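@channel sequence for tomorrow's demo:
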Amino acid sequence: MSSYTVAALYCFTRFADPASIAAELRVRCADLETCGTLILAGEGINGTVAGSAEAIATLIAHLRTLPGCAAMDVKYSHAHGAPFARMKVKVKAEIVTLGVGDLDPANQAGTHLDPADWNALIADPDTVVIDTRNAYEVAVGTFERAIDPETRSFREFPDWFDTFAADLKAQGRTPKIAMFCTGGIRCEKSTALVKARGFDDVYHLKGGILRYLEEMPEAESRWQGDCYVFDERVAVGHGLKVGDYATCKDCGLPYRQGADHDCPGDASGAWPHRA
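structure tokens (generated this afternoon):
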């Protein structure tokens, strides 16, 4: 297969028996010869899968029949070669790990904004813009004026935000908060967290950076750099054009090809691959 359709998807819903759904999906994905990863939990499904156009269409149609998944968010792109080595279907406690168990992203998340409304919101100097991704992702590209929490994993975000929120409240500020991530899923949880911490005007970019780069004309864009992605493309730019980044085989960090890379070595434990 020379051309692959890539589908990044997630849906927060309630699965009574995610293990049985996963078992069925392992068989179905093997039959369709897809590659990638699907993660299931009691709170829903998340993943990125690739295969022929027909196989991905068949798989997505099936996933939409799962409880609560009819309106599942899916973003499509294309790759010339297989972006993943194999197919994995996993069952975990969370479909994206934040470590705050009392959240209900399906009902408590912030307000979704399309790219045009997002541009207007983050142009307001009084809006606090937060990049919810990890430091190595932010280093590849981010929105103008965005705050980098400098996290190594999403689990670190709640502690960072609690410190940040305390500073805001000490200043007597309850600003509008705009949050974004790669595909939208981390913001479903992070905005629910922020609202649970007492902030009401909380917004996030619908479909994440990937949809923004796909839909927003570059001349009108407020994005700077490329967007790191968790597959062999490494990074993409406007129009989802593959960038000129590679992944260091020793540390796992992305770096621009042809540029100097200050590799920290094996001690980093390849932490970039933890969302």
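heads up for whoever presents: The first helix runs from residue 18 to 32.
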